[in-house]
Amino acid sequence: MSIKTEPIGSLPRPLSLLKSKPDLDLQEEVVRETLRELDQTGSPILTDGEQLKPSFLTYPLSLDDNLASGGVLIFFKDGHTRDLPKLVRGPFRYAHYAVEYYTFASRCLRKEGISSSP
């Protein structure tokens, strides 16, 4: 019996990505490797698993002077926390949209010669 599965949510970031400052070449290499490995499993969904996002909670936010720390503090079982910012003045603006990450992953898939989409 086989159980069909699809990845959802986050995939662990490799240490090379965690320890580096933003480096577009390294980011692309990591995403391409992740997509290649998922493709080899036969997964119908190919995604970077949020590896490039600074935080799964706040990645689309514009962290300008409209937001401040001290919002909601979320505690995770492994001991780390995430501090959701609070809006201190308007207007609220997004800094990033999901389509940017989709476009990046799609470009990586094309470079790998994989026809599936994230």
Number of domains: 2
**Spatial strand arrangement across the major sheet:** 1-4
SSE sequence, one letter per element: HHEEEEH
What's the total number of strands? 4
Describe the structure.
The radius of gyration is 17 Å and the shape is globular. A two-stranded antiparallel sheet has the order 1-4. A two-stranded antiparallel ribbon has the order 2-3. It has helices spanning 15-18, 24-40, 98-112; strands at residues 67-68, 73-75, 81-83, 86-87. It contains 3 helices and 4 strands.
Concise overview:
The chain is an alpha+beta fold and 118 residues long. Helix content is 31%, strand content 8%. The longest helix is centred in the first third of the chain and has 17 residues, at 24-40.
